[in-house]
């Protein structure tokens, strides 16, 4: 007879470790990635001896909020998510700053409490899964797929960081170089969808890049995301030029009103991870019919459970669902994979920055997550199914201390080489 466990698992200790990992000079509309990307690794330990992992942004402002929240969590049972959220609310009650959100100013309207809550919620789910011997996907309603498809994420990029040797990706500054980048990434990982980070060069050049990708990859769904860099007029023009070529157009312009104006004129779905980034954005966006696909992201939607709620709301209103990413490590990939597996209407291939990090730059024991045919198999062991590699954590923490970066600042980094660079949108 199986034994029932009613044992409580109270939070006894929370450790937050900032880490840095090497990142190539990937260009976007606000600047360029610095040589290191930052993350914070959250470990919760319970009085019953279990531990769970979470991963989030590593910017100084965010770290300070994580630490303020962590200090309030001792003694709470990991099953009591409402109490955890209440305490985090209280801890951040007087925090009105928008600084240190980890996205170089590209996503500013999301909920601070939800950003801070997210890694704690993921770590508690990891512990709950271990306590009952079930994968996190089961705690989210059960996996509806055993493999999660991800998308190739192409970037315009420099050959290498200024002053350093070119990296082994080389430059990607024109259509031919982007096609070569796509070929390598698709061959290496097997991705069957392709996203291009746009908003970097003139829209005509980015359209030419998409058309070149279409020719080279006739069967791959394509997307382009200029992060709101285009005016409404430019977005409509590009949207008409790419009609029938891309599966969705992501954040061509800023704001719900701007997106709604574009949506009225273009045929393809508009997607966003910029104008709908919190629950109170959903009503105005639906009312204005501004977007047809929302990119979820558990790092700013308050964790895995709330991201599933977002999925249900999208389903209710007939919105498509995809998944956004930022530079991330293996704990986040595990969480994204469990969430996507347990979200029936997440039917688009999810974004991931995974191929851009060095294989040996991670904090988890290698081997738990592998790409095959562009997909990651959903871990079936208890919890998230990934284990912390303490030596690697220490090494990436040393890298954090040594690299001197404490806030992601794509604009500041680009301005070191192009002092007149102005990211103000719309750029075109
Ligand atoms: O990593 C980047 O440069 C991306 O531009 C990222 O910061 C965005 O948040 C993201 O991937 C997006 O889809 O907007
Ligand atoms: Mg985006």
From TrEMBL:
It comes from the Bacteria. Residues 175-269 form the Mandelate racemase/muconate lactonizing enzyme C-terminal domain. InterPro entries: DgoD-like (IPR034593), Enolase-like_C_sf (IPR036849), Enolase-like_N (IPR029017), Enolase_C-like (IPR029065), GlucD-like (IPR034598), Mandelate_racemase_C (IPR013342). It is an enzyme of class 4 (lyase). Its EC number is 4.2.1.40. Its cofactor is Mg(2+). It catalyses: D-glucarate = 5-dehydro-4-deoxy-D-glucarate + H2O. Signal peptide: none annotated. GO terms for molecular function: glucarate dehydratase activity; metal ion binding. The active site is at residues 197, 324. SUPFAM superfamilies: Enolase C-terminal domain-like, Enolase N-terminal domain-like. Pathway: Carbohydrate acid metabolism; D-glucarate degradation; 2,5-dioxopentanoate from D-glucarate: step 1/2. Keywords: Lyase, Magnesium, Metal-binding. Belongs to the mandelate racemase/muconate lactonizing enzyme family. GlucD subfamily. PANTHER family: D-GALACTONATE DEHYDRATASE-RELATED (PTHR48080), GLUCARATE DEHYDRATASE (PTHR48080:SF4). This is glucarate dehydratase. The lineage of its organism: Bacteria, Bacillati, Actinomycetota, Actinomycetes, Pseudonocardiales.
């Amino acid at each position: 007879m199986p034994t029932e466990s009613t044992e409580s698992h109270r939070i006894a200790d929370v450790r937050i470790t900032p880490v840095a990992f090497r990142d190539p000079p990937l260009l976007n509309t606000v600047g360029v990635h610095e040589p290191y990307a930052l993350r914070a690794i959250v470990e919760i330990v319970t009085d019953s001896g279990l531990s769970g992992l979470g991963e989030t942004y590593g910017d100084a402002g965010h770290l300070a909020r994580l630490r303020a929240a962590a200090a309030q969590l001792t003694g709470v049972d990991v099953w009591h998510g409402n109490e955890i959220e209440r305490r985090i609310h209280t801890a951040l009650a007087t925090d009105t700053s928008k600084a240190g959100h980890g996205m170089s100013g590209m996503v500013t309207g999301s909920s601070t409490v939800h950003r801070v809550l997210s890694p704690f919620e993921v770590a508690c789910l990891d512990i709950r899964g271990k306590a009952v011997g079930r994968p996190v996907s089961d705690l989210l309603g059960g996996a509806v797929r055993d493999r999660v498809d991800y998308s190739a994420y192409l970037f315009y990029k420099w050959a290498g960081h200024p002053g350093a040797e070119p990296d082994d990706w080389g430059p990607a500054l024109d259509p031919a170089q982007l096609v070569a980048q796509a070929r390598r990434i698709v061959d290496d990982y097997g991705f069957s969808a392709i996203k291009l980070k746009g908003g970097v060069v003139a829209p005509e050049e980015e359209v030419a890049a998409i058309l070149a990708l279409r020719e080279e990859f006739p069967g791959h769904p394509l997307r382009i995301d200029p992060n709101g860099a285009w005016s409404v007029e430019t977005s409509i023009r590009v949207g008409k030029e790419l009609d029938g070529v891309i599966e969705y157009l992501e954040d061509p312009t800023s704001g719900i009103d701007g997106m709604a104006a574009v949506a009225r004129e273009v045929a393809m779905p508009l997607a966003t991870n910029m104008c709908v980034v919190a629950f109170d954005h959903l009503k105005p966006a639906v009312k204005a019919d501004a977007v047809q696909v929302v990119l979820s992201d558990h790092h700013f939607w308050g964790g895995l459970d709330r991201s599933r709620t977002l999925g249900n709301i999208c389903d209710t209103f007939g919105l498509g669902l995809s998944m956004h990413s930022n530079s991330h490590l293996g704990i986040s990939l595990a969480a994204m994979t469990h969430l996507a597996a347990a979200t029936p209407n997440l039917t688009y291939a999810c974004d991931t920055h995974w191929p851009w990090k060095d294989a040996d730059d991670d904090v988890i024991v290698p081997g738990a997550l592998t790409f095959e045919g562009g997909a990651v198999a959903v871990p079936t062991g208890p919890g998230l199914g990934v284990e912390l590699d303490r030596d690697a954590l220490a090494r990436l923490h040393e890298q954090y201390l040594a690299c001197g970066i404490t806030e992601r600042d794509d604009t500041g980094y680009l301005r070191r080489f192009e002092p007149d660079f102005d990211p103000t949108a719309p750029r075109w």
